[in-house]
C-alpha cells in the first residue's frame, strides 16, 4: 500500500470526513440527517464529551488536507466481556479501492482497540453489501446474526414516553449507579445471562465494573432501580455515534422477575433517553436475541424497529482472538 498513510484523525479532519460521509451517502442514494453536521462530528470526536474514535487515509500525491478514506468507531461495553469497540462507518474513495486501504484502516482501529483492553469489536452490515461482508469475514469477523440470531433494533427518543408510572408496591427510585452498587449489578448480570441461556458468558466481575465506569472509567454508565433499599433492576448504556448522529446504546436492561410489569424497565429507559437528549442524541440502539419474544414485544410497543428483519442489517463480531489475529496479520 505504498503512497498511502493511515493515521489517527484530528479535529481539523472533521470537515473533510463529513464531506466523505456525504459522498458515501450520495453513492448509496441516501442523505445524512439534517441534524448531523461537521460541527457535530467535531464535537463528538474531539469535544469535552468525545465519543468518536477515527482513523483516516491520505495519499502523498493528493492535495494537503484531502482525505481518501476513514473509519469511525466508538467505545462500548459488554456485561460479559467488558471493554468493547464498535465500528460504525468505513469509507474509501473509488480511486483508492482494492488497494488495501480499507483493510489497513481496520487494522489500525483494531490495534487501538486492543491497546485499550477491548475484548470484542462489533459492526453492522447490510446483507446486500457483499463487498463489505467479504472484507470483514476475511479479517476474521463472524456474522452473529446468522450464528446466534441477534437482531439489531433502533428506537427514536421522540416515540418514547419520558414520564412513567410505577404500578407496584414500595417507593421506587431510579438513579445513577455508584461504585458501591456494582456488586449487586454483577449479581443481576449473572441472572440475565442465566435467563438468556448463557450462564457461562460473563467473564468479568464487580471490580471490573467499578474500574470501567465513573468515576474511575468512561466505558459505560448504569442506572439502577431501587425499592426500599434493594436494587431490583439496572440499565447499562453508553453514547454512540454514526451517520445517524449521536445515540445511546442500551447494552443491558434487566428487572428482577418479581418486579416486572410495573413500569421499572420503562423508567430506566426514560432516564437514559433524557440523558441522550441532553447530549443532542436522537435514538436508542440495542440488540436482542430473536427467541426473546417477550423483550422484543416490550421494545416494539415503544416504537422500536427491528432493523435486521425490516432492512436486512446484520451484526458482525470480532472476538478477542480474531482482533489480535487481525493486528498480527499486518505487523
Textual characterization of the structure:
With 331 residues, the protein is α+β, with helices and mostly antiparallel strands. The protein folds into two domains: 4-138 and 317-328, Aminopeptidase; 155-313, 3-Layer(aba) Sandwich (Aminopeptidase), CATH 3.40.630. The chain has helices spanning 14-27, 38-46, 101-115, 130-139, 144-148, 182-195, 206-212, 264-278, 293-300, 307-311, 320-328, and strands at 4-8, 52-59, 69-78, 82-92, 120-126, 142-143, 150-156, 172-176, 221-227, 230-242, 245-255, 283-289, 305-306, 313-319. The strands form two sheets. The protein has a seven-stranded mixed beta sheet with strand order 1-2-3-4-5-14-6, with helices on both faces. A hairpin with a 2-residue loop joins strand 10 (230-242) and strand 11. Helix 3 (101-115) crosses helix 11 and helix 6 (182-195) packs across helix 7. The radius of gyration is 20 Å and the shape is globular. The two termini are 13 Å apart. Residues 4-165, 172-328 form the N-acetyltransferase domain.
Keywords:
Aminopeptidase, 331 residues, alpha+beta, 34% helix, seven-stranded mixed sheet
Number of domains: 2
Q: Structural class, from secondary structure content?
A: alpha+beta
Strand content: 25-35%
Unreliable spans? none
**What is the CATH superfamily of the largest domain?**
Gcn5-related N-acetyltransferase (GNAT)
According to DSSP, the number of beta strands is: 14
Strand/helix succession? EHHEEEHEHEHEEHHEEEHEHEHEH
CATH architecture of the largest domain: 3-Layer(aba) Sandwich
Largest sheet strand order: 1-2-3-4-5-14-6
Mean pLDDT: 91
Beginning-to-end CA distance, first to last residue: 13 Å
State Rg.
20 Å
GO molecular function, one term: N-acetyltransferase activity
Family: Belongs to the acetyltransferase family.
Protein name: N-acetyltransferase domain-containing protein
Keywords: Acyltransferase, Transferase
Amino acid at each position: 500500500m505504498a503512497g498511502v498513510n493511515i493515521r489517527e484523525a484530528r479535529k481539523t479532519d472533521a470537515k473533510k470526513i463529513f464531506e466523505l460521509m456525504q459522498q458515501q451517502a450520495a453513492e448509496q442514494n441516501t442523505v445524512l440527517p439534517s441534524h448531523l453536521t461537521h460541527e457535530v462530528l467535531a464535537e463528538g470526536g474531539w469535544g469535552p464529551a468525545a465519543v468518536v474514535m477515527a482513523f483516516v487515509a491520505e495519499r502523498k500525491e493528493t492535495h494537503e488536507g484531502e482525505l481518501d478514506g476513514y473509519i469511525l468507531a466508538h467505545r462500548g461495553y459488554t456485561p460479559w466481556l467488558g471493554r468493547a469497540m464498535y465500528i460504525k462507518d468505513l469509507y474509501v474513495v473509488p480511486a483508492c479501492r482494492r488497494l488495501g486501504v480499507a483493510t489497513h484502516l481496520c487494522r489500525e482501529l483494531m490495534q487501538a482497540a486492543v491497546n485499550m483492553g477491548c475484548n470484542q469489536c462489533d459492526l453492522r452490515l447490510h446483507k446486500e453489501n457483499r463487498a463489505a461482508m467479504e472484507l470483514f469475514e476475511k479479517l476474521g469477523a463472524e456474522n452473529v446474526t446468522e450464528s446466534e440470531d441477534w437482531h439489531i433494533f433502533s428506537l427514536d427518543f421522540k416515540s418514547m414516553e419520558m414520564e412513567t408510572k410505577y404500578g407496584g408496591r414500595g417507593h421506587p427510585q431510579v438513579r445513577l449507579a455508584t461504585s458501591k452498587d456494582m456488586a449487586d449489578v454483577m449479581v443481576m448480570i449473572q441472572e440475565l445471562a442465566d435467563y438468556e441461556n448463557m450462564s457461562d458468558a460473563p467473564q468479568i466481575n464487580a471490580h471490573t465494573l467499578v474500574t470501567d465506569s465513573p468515576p474511575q472509567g468512561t466505558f459505560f454508565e448504569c442506572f439502577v432501580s431501587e425499592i426500599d433499599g434493594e436494587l431490583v433492576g439496572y440499565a447499562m448504556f453508553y453514547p454512540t455515534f454514526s451517520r445517524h448522529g449521536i445515540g445511546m446504546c442500551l447494552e443491558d436492561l434487566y428487572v428482577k422477575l418479581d418486579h416486572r410489569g410495573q413500569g421499572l424497565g420503562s423508567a430506566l429507559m426514560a432516564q437514559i433517553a433524557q440523558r441522550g437528549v441532553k447530549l443532542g442524541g436522537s435514538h436508542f440502539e440495542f440488540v436482542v436475541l430473536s427467541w426473546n419474544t417477550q423483550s422484543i414485544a416490550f421494545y416494539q410497543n415503544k416504537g422500536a424497529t427491528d432493523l435486521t428483519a425490516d432492512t436486512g442489517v446484520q451484526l458482525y463480531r470480532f472476538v478477542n482472538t480474531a482482533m489480535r489475529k487481525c493486528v498480527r496479520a499486518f505487523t
